[in-house]
TrEMBL record:
It is found in: Cytoplasm. This is Translational regulator CsrA. InterPro entries: CsrA, CsrA_sf. A translational regulator that binds mRNA to regulate translation initiation and/or mRNA stability. Usually binds in the 5'-UTR at or near the Shine-Dalgarno sequence preventing ribosome-binding, thus repressing translation. Its main target seems to be the major flagellin gene, while its function is anatagonized by FliW. It comes from Clostridium ljungdahlii. One of its GO terms (molecular function) is mRNA 5'-UTR binding.
Length: 71
């Protein structure tokens, strides 16, 4: 894991085509600007985890309901 300090207006690059810039820092929060190609998905981690959990719950559904549809 890389830990790096940046001030307002400073950036870092991921590869050649993703740039993350610190836009604002105040009261314990940091506002970031992310410039990346459109084909790169950008999700907040808590949203990603929520989607992952929903998918697990959907996959674990009772398949007996599907068996009734065949009849």
């Amino acid at each position: 894991m890389l830990v790096i300090s940046r001030k307002k207006g400073e950036s870092l690059l991921l590869g050649e085509d993703i740039e993350i810039t610190v836009v604002k820092v105040e009261e314990g929060t940091v506002k970031l600007s992310i410039s990346a190609p459109r084909n790169i998905k950008i999700l907040r981690k808590e949203l990603y985890k929520e989607i992952e959990e929903e998918n697990k719950n959907a996959a674990a559904s009772d398949i007996s309901i599907l068996k009734k549809l065949k009849k």
